[in-house]
Amino acid sequence: MSAPTKTLLQGLDRLLPTYARADLTIVRGEGAQVCDSEGHEYLDFGGGIAVMSLGHCHPAPLKAAQEQLERLWHASNLYRTEPAEELALRLSERFGGAQAFLCNSGAESIEAAIKYARKATGKTGVVALDGSFHGRTLGALSVTGQPAKREAFAPLVPGVSFVPPNDIEALEAAVDHEVGLIVLEPILGEGGVIPLTPEFVAAAAALEPLLCCDEIQTGVGRTGSFFAFEQLGVRPDLVTLAKGLANGLPIGALLVADDVAGSFAPGDHGSTFGGNPVSCAAACAVVDAIDDELLQGVRTRGDRLADGVAALPGVRQIRGRGLLLGAVVDAVASEIVAACRERGLLVLTAGDDVVRLAPPLTIDDADIAMALAILEAVFGEGHGRVK
Q: How far is CA 247 from CA 81, 178, 324, in A?
């Protein structure tokens, strides 16, 4: 065993086992390609779990982060910084008028949304969706509709009820006088890549509680519009962002629409590293890059990828929008993922029988063709096929 390999194995033992990590150490990335410690290359159609919006080491956020590193790494939120205010302005313009709380992750942005709704409405109840995923911190886990993730940590934050996605009658029945917040993903990501219907989201928006769209996975161009809610004909009160916002640097954001702003006061919430200048500088470059041309490419290439995957043997259904797609397969999804990895393609699961695809928004036709060829070979060999 080589010395570097031995050191890596020792380092793995020193990490808490909170992830079922594959035996793959990624050391370098460029565009849609990553390379492991053994020199093998992979086509990354997981995108770091929908994080690498512009691809690995994209020159725009790279340049912005490098330049900011040479000026200022950190300043207390007791003071102003230019990158944080510039990012808040850009996000407000994209939303159509909002204030931002900047943090470090999607779970943090959900925690902020829960607290904001309590302060704004004086109500503690929350309605969320079966199968949803909003994070693993205590509040975010409390509104995550996956019992297997919740049970070991009960009791959680009380007052949360869950309804099936796209069931308007169940949603309306769940909203009583104690509910101050409805939180939903426009497309349930971890829960199977299940899109919500415009009718369901409109019904949620028409109810009295504040509506929070969790766009941690769907936002920043992933579905072919900057926010996924733009395709649903609604304008939510709250929006949470993270993942692709800074192209891999840690960041999260809660956006509060102008017409419901004003409930947080100094001391109500905070984050020592929230609004980090380096992450915010990179995020500004990402937001600037998500222009009409790129969004059109997301829609066009998303359709091409969806059509190609839908035609593969063993694929029963293709779900999603843009470059967030889920293939419902007649197989064990995790075995498909492992077989793809052996052939040089990184993909994700979204449940036992759903293979999730979330490549960079900058993916080109050649890489789509290569991914489809690998998927076709894997399905053709019958990996994970349910008997």
A: 20, 38, 16
